[in-house]
Amino acid sequence: MTVLKIIAFIVFAISCVVIYKNTNSYEPYKRAIYIVVGTIVMYIVTSIVCGIAVGGIVVKSEKALEDTMLIMKLIYTPINAMIVLGTLGNILRKIKR
Question: Is the pTM of this model over 0.85?
Answer without folding.
Answer: no
